[in-house]
Amino acid sequence: MENILIVMPAIPTRGIAVFPGVKTNIDVGREAARNAVNEAMQADNRIFLVMQMDETVDVPSTQDCMKVGVIARILRSVNVGSDIIRISVEGMERAPLNELQMRDNIFRACIGAPFSRSSRKPRHIGILYKKKAKRWRHQEASR
């Protein structure tokens, strides 16, 4: 099995984790991240979002970020200040971060192949549902 590597514009996010299927707004202030948004908008509107572990680092490296991020689609981009862009994104697929680079004042991520989507619910969700259903039945019986 060969390793597939994809290089795409990236934003290391501060305090925001985006998941597949989730739509959210992100304010982008760092110049390298704004440049990544512009590059993505000129291409296919896809950008890699990965959460920074230490929000105080201005130029994060691979070690400063989580090991997994999400490929997102930029739905809309609006300038809200002289150096802030607000983007609306929708998470599409999770993917492993191999390397985060800043070249030519643009954040780019080298990522592995996106994780396959499973049609099954994660096991812990089924267990949680069973526990809640048991509690509800018990509450109904005691009324």
Brief summary:
This protein has helices at residues 31-42, 123-141, and strands at 6-13, 23-28, 46-51, 68-81, 84-103, 106-111.
Provide key terms for this protein.
globular; alpha+beta; 143 residues; 42% strand; five-stranded mixed barrel
Your description of this structure?
This protein is of the alpha+beta class and 143 residues long. The protein contains two helices and six strands, in the order ββαββββα. The protein has helices spanning 31-42, 123-141, and strands at 6-13, 23-28, 46-51, 68-81, 84-103, 106-111. The chain has a five-stranded mixed β-barrel with strand order 1-3-4-5-6. The longest helix is centred in the last third of the chain and has 19 residues, at 123-141. The chain is globular, with a radius of gyration of 19 Å. The relative contact order is 0.22. Mean pLDDT is 85; it is low at 119-129.
List the helices and strands and how they pair.
Blueprint: E1 6-13, E2 23-28, H1 31-42, E3 46-51, E4 68-81, E5 84-103, E6 106-111, H2 123-141
C-alpha end-to-end distance: 58 Å
How many DSSP H or I helices? 2
Approximate shape:
globular
Q: Strand share of the residues? A: 35-45%
Quaternary class: single chain
Counting helices, strands and paired strands, the structural category is alpha+beta
Arithmetic mean pLDDT: 85
Helix and strand run: EEHEEEEH
Spatial order of strands in the largest sheet: 1-3-4-5-6
| Radius of gyration based on Cα positions | 19 Å
Show unreliable segments. Answer: 119-129
Largest sheet features? 5 strands, mixed, barrel
